[in-house]
Design a protein that fits this description.
Blueprint lengths: L22 H4 L2 E4 L5 H14 L9 E4 H8 L6 H12 L2 E7 L5 E7 L3 E5 L2 E5 L2 H7 L10 H4 L5 H11 L10 E2 H7 L11 H19 L2 E10 L2 E11 L18 H9 L3 H11 L1 H12 L7 H10 L18 H15 L2 H12 L4 H10 L7 H11 L8
Antiparallel strand pairs: 1-3, 2-6, 3-4, 5-6, 7-9, 8-9
Helix pairs in contact: 2-3, 2-4, 3-15, 7-9, 10-11, 11-12, 12-13, 13-14
Length: about 400
């Protein structure tokens, strides 16, 4: 959720917010005070994604600290940096000013995180009830795809993307005063950016260029002047046809499919069900669902389905609870990797894959996307990755 303004993060079950006509009049102007680094912005988004399914039903949320570090893209042993980033979120204020369901003006303020703590390798954190309610509102927030987020190298560019993406359905952010825009970009406290020519040259133009090159939308700045002074700015938004595939389905279509209904009936969460369909395709998921349905001795259907989908291998490879005979060499190593991956939570599995695939390109990347951790072309790199993540598992290997 971190972002130039908290407003652009999640929404309705990870679905894209601004999709109905009413959204235009209900979209809230929620922004945060102070500056957020690129790391803090990414951190807030990952924390929000991790908590989203239970945002309004759980008072606190947890995520493996090492996984959290990997998803954000920094050294998982650098706990001091993580502490500093969490401290920054707890000290940053989110403010909203919007119309409520009855048409009454509502103003509110809250810390982005009400608390955070690290203990036993786990990061525990919470949102204030009022902020959690806003973050859970599909008319207020648009969920940011972490696959797109990781492509950004500039905090200002990510802030611009976050503040524009929630308006993708309406095609324009609407007019912002230059003072508000500076706040959204985190430069309101710098006198240097009081002059528009500096703001334009150092913040707007570079950020627009990175958003248009990196993300699934294309933004175009539009200025409003009083005399020769620029007083307001808005951004016109359109889908980037070359990168739109990176975006997640807004949920409207997926929720009406039989595959989605079967996954939910099996016990999968809304987010997980849509993620699986988007990542593996309805046909592949249906095939695995049919296989699981034909097994009479599966105790945890969601966990079992998670295993066979995550590895990208035929379901039959995972049916035997005990190997027919002891495995050695490469076969044993593959078994270790398979079991390690299966033991991870959905959030951790997603982080593992994103972290590993970022190191690949060309044929190696294609092979991993087809075969997952069983990719023969990447066997050595995969083994090295998991040895670094869980060295104890390979002690006898």
């Amino acid at each position: 959720m971190a972002r130039g303004e908290i407003a652009d993060i999640p929404k309705d079950q990870l679905t894209g917010p601004l999709r109905r006509g009413e959204v235009k009049k209900h979209v809230a102007a929620i922004h945060i005070s102070g500056k957020l680094s690129l790391l803090q912005r990414k951190l807030s988004n990952v924390l929000l994604l991790n908590a989203y399914d239970t945002l309004t039903t759980a008072t606190r949320h947890q995520i493996d600290a090492r996984t959290l570090c990997m998803m954000i893209g920094y050294n998982s042993n650098d706990i001091e940096t993580l502490k500093a980033a969490l401290r920054g979120l707890a000290e940053t204020v989110a403010e909203w000013d919007m119309l409520d369901a009855e048409g009454q003006q509502e103003w509110g303020v809250s810390a982005m995180l009400s608390y955070a703590r690290l203990r036993g390798g786990v990061c525990e954190y919470a949102y204030s009830p009022a902020l959690a309610e806003k973050l859970n509102d599909p008319k207020v927030f648009a969920l940011i795809n972490l696959n797109i987020q990781r492509r950004f190298n500039s905090g200002h560019a990510l802030a611009l993307y976050e503040n524009c993406y929630r308006f993708v359905r309406t095609g324009s952010t609407g007019w912002w005063s230059i003072d508000l825009f500076r706040r959204l970009m985190g430069v309101a406290d710098s006198p240097y950016y009081d002059e528009f020519k500096h703001l334009n040259a150092k913040i707007i133009k570079p950020a627009v260029a990175e958003v248009n090159k990196t993300s699934n939308i294309i933004v175009t700045p539009d200025l409003r002047k009083m005399g020769r002074t620029v007083t307001e700015i808005r951004f016109l938004i359109q889908v980037n046809p070359q990168l739109s595939i990176l975006d997640l389905d807004d949920g409207e279509g997926l929720r009406n499919t039989d595959t989605y209904a079967r996954l939910r009936g099996l016990g999968a969460s809304d987010r997980l069900a849509r993620q699986w369909i988007a990542e593996y395709g309805q046909g592949h998921v249906q095939e695995k669902l049919d296989y699981v349905a034909g097994q009479s001795d599966v105790r945890n259907a969601v966990g079992y389905l998670t295993r066979i989908l995550a590895e990208g291998a035929p379901a039959s490879e995972f049916r035997s609870e005990t190997p027919a005979k002891p495995l050695t060499g490469r076969a044993r190593r593959l078994e270790i990797i398979r079991d390690l991956a299966a033991a991870r939570t959905p959030t951790q599995r997603d982080a593992d894959k994103r972290l590993f695939v970022a190191r690949l390109d060309g044929a190696a990347r294609d092979d991993f996307e087809r075969h997952g951790w069983m990719s023969a072309l990447n066997a050595e790199a995969i083994a090295a990755f998991w040895r670094d993540l869980a060295p104890e598992a390979f002690e006898a290997d």
